[in-house]
Design a protein that fits this description.
The protein is mainly α and about 350 residues long. The protein has 16 helices and four strands. About 60% of the residues lie in helices and about 5% in strands.
């Protein structure tokens, strides 16, 4: 594909300026030429046969890892032989993505877009990822691993109460509540959100597929795939239904065990107040989380604080990856942060503006 063909291709996006289309074409041709020279140097150094000049731009999708290395790591061949700047990296990434989109290779375009997001953060943002904690939340903050231990501690407390020779109705209520909370804490660690999990119901995959438009909040546990389907939540008008695949095996095991218990009671509601038999409300969930975290950890921990703790944990890892120029790790944790934002019910941009502090 020659320069004019590339310009014509980029011109299919009518909103883009002609000068930009020409710049994209020039950049892509220069990238191809430079990449070919890089591959030739590498082949000579390794004493292997060079694959030769590329006839088209298929190398962009066939050699993704090598292309990314060339764009982000390979030094200039002219003095002072510097590594490419972030602006230069972005200047190469943008036309690649546009080219792939216009040639209908959306899978490859998505892979390059993941890299683009990381480079964009390296250019424009430098976060220390403190989680946007208020003073009161800072006083109640615990570490990410402590939250994992808290879920186990709730289960152990249930076992202690169950072992009592004579249990009171208060003990039975505590067992029910803490068993439910152990599941919820694990759920919030994997899929941090607000209090809407209080209204979750179990539904089979077969029955779920029959729903024309889900109106409630569901847990679907399938043989090959399990997920959360959340329709009723604070920002649903803006972001629509939240769909989150459940991949955490301990959480899946906990939910399946809980489902079996509920099935024996002919009940599909996950969380019920033992005293009244009513389904939890958002306020119930908040009050119970505070009650038992205060009892077992001497901390007031609610869903917002859990969200900030897990975002902080992922954000610290992301920040370290950015500083260390570790693209693989940075992409991984940026995707985790984006998934957390989706679970919470806001955009990744809002997450970084509100929940992450700029350094």
């Amino acid at each position: 594909m020659d320069k004019q063909s590339l310009i014509n291709l980029f011109a299919q996006k009518e909103s883009r300026r002609d000068t930009t289309n020409q710049a994209y074409a020039n950049r892509l041709i220069a990238l191809k030429r430079g990449y070919e020279a890089y591959r030739k140097r590498k082949a000579e150094a390794e004493e292997v046969e060079w694959e030769g000049v590329y006839e088209n731009f298929d190398f962009l999708k066939d050699n993704f890892d090598n292309v990314i290395h060339y764009i982000t790591k390979e030094k200039n061949q002219r003095k002072p032989y510097n590594h490419p700047t972030k602006q230069t990296q972005m200047g190469n990434i943008n036309p690649i993505i546009e080219y792939l989109l216009l040639t209908d290779d959306h899978v490859a375009a998505e892979e390059y877009t993941k890299v683009k997001k990381v480079i964009d953060d390296q250019i424009e943002k430098n976060y220390n990822y403190q989680g946007g904690l208020t003073q009161k939340q800072s006083e109640n903050e615990v570490g990410y691993n402590e939250l994992l231990d808290y879920a186990d501690k709730l289960q152990k407390e249930c076992e202690i109460l169950n072992s009592k020779p004579l249990k009171s109705h208060i003990d039975d209520w505590d067992i029910e509540n803490m068993s439910a909370l152990s599941i919820l804490v694990r759920m919030y660690l994997c899929h941090p959100s607000r209090n809407e999990y209080a209204s979750l119901r179990f539904i089979s995959l077969v029955d779920y597929k029959k729903l024309k438009q889900p109106e409630l909040n569901y847990v679907v546990l399938g043989q090959k795939k399990s997920f959360l389907s959340i329709t009723n939540y604070k920002t649903s008008d803006r972001y629509g239904m939240k769909f989150s695949e459940i991949k955490d095996k301990p959480l899946i095991r906990m939910l399946k065990k809980w489902r079996q218990k509920k099935m024996e009671m002919a009940e599909d509601r996950l969380f019920i107040t033992p005293k009244t038999g009513d389904q939890w409300t958002n306020d119930n969930l908040s009050a119970l989380m505070t009650k038992y975290s205060k009892r077992l950890l001497n901390k007031n921990i609610g869903t917002t604080l859990i969200y900030k703790i897990v975002v902080k944990e992922a954000g610290i890892n992301y920040s370290e990856a950015l500083k260390n120029e570790d693209l693989v790790k940075a992409i991984k944790f940026n995707e985790i942060l984006e998934q957390y934002a989706k679970s919470r019910g806001h955009s990744a941009k809002i997450q970084k503006q509100i929940y992450l502090i700029k350094d």
